[in-house]
Amino acid sequence: MKNVLVFDIETIPDLEGGRRIYDLDGLDDKDTASALLNLRRQETGSEFLRLHLQRIVAISVVLRSAQGIRVWSLGEEGSTEKELIERFYDGIERFTPQLVSWNGSGFDLPVLHYRSLRHSVSAARYWETGENDNNFKWNNYLSRYHSRHLDLMDVIALYNNRAFAPLDQVATLLGFPGKMGMSGSKVFDAYQAGELKGIRDYCETDVLNTWLVYLRFQLMRGELDAVGYDNEVTLLREYLAAENQPHFSAFLEAWQ
């Protein structure tokens, strides 16, 4: 069995970078954040910051391997952004997993690219396109139409942005829990309140939804039969129950 790694990130405004770019020295964090959001709103009508000013505060994953299934957030609550990014790419360096995301090509991976530049993080295996390993020539992590990274939102929409759908709605449509306890727009408020564990827990429920949509996708495309699909679902239910963590228990309860 190949290793499959489903991933998701949570971000907040990069206040230090914003001060540097927009010459906002002297402003405290609250005023800097307000200035950045106001500048962006004036520019586009939306407060959604450009990707290079998205600072990563959590990376959560589901890993399915021959050893079973596991769900966790990389690093510790006190880990730096650089440490989180290094752990993500170290996993790719060691195991070369199949990556699975929801809008990873449009958000998560470009953010990781910019933030890796910011922190001088090396990720040779991830950036391989066949120069050193011929296996990556026709199937690498970077090409939109290769499967080594599978962006479910992009593929299911047939690479047509008019057909894109939010994960929350697709997961709910399929009978899965969808968003639980938080949303991306609330992450900065939670971070300022010191609720990093809540952010990490929320990110873990997002990758759980993505994994479940991926299983249904694998059933649809014939990579899983009905028995195999049911076995994967049972494996996940049993894992979440055995972990006995409040956010996993809430996820199971919402999934009845």
Structure description:
- It is a single chain.
- By secondary structure, the protein is an alpha/beta fold.
- It has one domain: Ribonuclease H-like superfamily/Ribonuclease H (Nucleotidyltransferase, domain 5, 2-Layer Sandwich).
- It contains 11 helices and 5 strands; from the N terminus they run βααββαβααβαααααα.
- The protein has a 5-stranded mixed sheet, with helices on both faces.
- The longest helix is centred in the C-terminal third of the chain and has 25 residues, at 196-220.
- The chain is globular, with a radius of gyration of 19 Å.
- The two termini are 29 Å apart.
CATH fold topology: Nucleotidyltransferase, domain 5
Query: Strand share of the residues?
Result: 5-15%
**Strands in their spatial order, largest beta sheet:** 3-2-1-4-5
pLDDT under 50 segments (min length 5)?
Answer: none
Kindly state the mean pLDDT as a whole number?
A: 96
The count of strands amounts to 5
